[in-house]
Structure formats: structure tokens, C-alpha cells
């Protein structure tokens, strides 16, 4: 039987809820100061924006299983029907790019929520920044942001975009999605909350 007919008979295979997630792609729980953290993410409790999930703090800190660790400072309900993302890599290792691309896979299917990628910032509702904001990309980031129509959001995806990671600087963002890299369920959850859902 062809894969096409088999797909029609079995129906839609998009996940309504996350069934399984890698434990180290979730928020960490624990207590105490840990002096060997390379990004100083544990100076005053766990700072998700600085953590690169290197696991040096284990067993003092361990995964909680909660993937909903993104924070949203500004919601735009206007984007509930359709939400166009313009991804810009300002100096990443590539892992955040892969995880962002995964939200368009059949398993997560971002289009069922009305989320789409666009190839130009002029059609974008949100600028998704991945990686450390390097000097060479600062001008490109500013031009992309200025080209976007209002209202617009900036989404910092991953620890490097949020705090600069091990080196460099992060960006000022409306939506912060921590992780190194963040998982697709974490990304989708934060984007839906930025649209005023959940």
C-alpha cells in the first residue's frame, strides 16, 4: 500500500500534547550556589536565560520535566489568526536553527496554529533572533527590525540570544525562550502565549 493511502486511512498524526521530551530541555530545580557554572547561571538561584545546560551542576540541580519555561513580557492578540516569523541568525552554533525548523515538521505542525515563516522582514510579525549578537550582524539585525511593520515582537531564542551565552551579548526581547537549544514544544508554547493564548 502506498504511503499516501496509508496516511489518508490513519488520519492526522500531529501531536495535540507533547508525549515525550528530553529531560535536559526542561527547567531545572535544585538549590544552593554552584561555583563552577561557566555562565554564572546559578549565582542567585537558576537563571534560565544564562544556562547553557552543560550539566556541570548535576546532581545539585536536575531537570523538572516542565518545558513551559519561556517568558513573555508583551502579548499581541492581533496575531492570533496568523503569525509570521522572520528568523535571523546573529551568530549561533546552529542548534537553535535546527530546533526552530522542527516546529514546522509534521509532528509539531506550526501551521495548525497559524504560525508561518516568511522570507522578508517586511511581512514579519516577529523577529526570531538566534545566537550571540555579533558586531558584524548588529547592523543587519537593526535593519531587519526597522523594516518590520508595527506592531512587532522580538523573540530571543536560546541562551546566546538572551544573555550572550559564554561570550558576547544578547538582545532586548519581548519573548524569551531559554534553552541551549530550546525544544520545539518550548518554542511553540512561548509563541502561543505571545499571541495572547494560554
From TrEMBL:
<dbReference type="InterPro" id="IPR052375">
    <property type="entry name" value="Complex_I_20kDa-like"/>
</dbReference>
<feature type="domain" description="NADH:ubiquinone oxidoreductase-like 20kDa subunit">
    <location>
        <begin position="93"/>
        <end position="192"/>
    </location>
</feature>
<keyword id="KW-0479">Metal-binding</keyword>
<keyword id="KW-0830">Ubiquinone</keyword>
<keyword id="KW-0411">Iron-sulfur</keyword>
<keyword id="KW-0408">Iron</keyword>
<keyword id="KW-0004">4Fe-4S</keyword>
<protein>
    <submittedName>
        <fullName>NADH:ubiquinone oxidoreductase</fullName>
    </submittedName>
</protein>
<comment type="similarity">
    <text>Belongs to the complex I 20 kDa subunit family.</text>
</comment>
<dbReference type="GO" id="GO:0046872">
    <property type="term" value="F:metal ion binding"/>
</dbReference>
<dbReference type="GO" id="GO:0051539">
    <property type="term" value="F:4 iron, 4 sulfur cluster binding"/>
</dbReference>
<dbReference type="InterPro" id="IPR006137">
    <property type="entry name" value="NADH_UbQ_OxRdtase-like_20kDa"/>
</dbReference>
<dbReference type="Pfam" id="PF01058">
    <property type="entry name" value="Oxidored_q6"/>
</dbReference>
Amino acid at each position: 500500500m502506498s504511503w499516501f493511502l496509508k496516511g489518508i486511512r490513519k488520519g492526522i498524526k500531529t501531536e495535540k500534547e507533547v508525549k515525550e521530551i528530553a529531560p535536559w530541555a526542561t527547567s531545572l530545580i535544585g538549590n544552593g550556589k554552584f561555583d563552577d557554572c561557566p555562565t554564572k547561571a546559578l549565582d542567585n538561584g537558576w537563571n534560565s536565560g544564562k544556562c547553557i545546560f552543560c550539566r556541570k551542576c548535576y546532581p545539585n540541580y536536575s531537570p523538572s520535566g516542565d518545558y513551559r519555561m519561556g517568558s513573555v513580557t508583551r502579548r499581541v492578540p492581533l496575531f492570533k489568526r496568523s503569525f509570521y516569523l522572520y528568523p535571523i541568525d546573529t551568530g549561533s552554533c546552529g542548534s537553535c536553527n535546527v530546533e526552530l525548523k522542527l516546529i514546522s515538521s509534521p509532528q509539531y505542525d506550526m501551521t495548525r496554529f497559524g504560525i508561518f515563516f516568511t522570507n522578508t522582514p517586511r511581512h514579519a510579525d516577529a523577529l526570531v533572533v538566534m545566537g550571540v549578537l555579533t558586531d558584524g550582524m548588529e547592523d543587519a539585525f537593526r535593519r531587519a527590525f526597522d523594516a518590520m511593520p508595527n506592531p512587532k515582537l522580538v523573540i530571543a531564542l536560546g541562551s546566546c540570544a538572551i544573555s550572550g551565552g559564554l561570550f558576547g551579548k544578547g538582545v532586548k526581547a519581548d519573548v524569551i525562550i531559554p534553552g541551549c537549544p530550546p525544544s520545539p514544544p518550548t518554542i511553540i508554547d512561548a509563541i502561543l502565549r505571545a499571541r495572547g493564548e494560554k
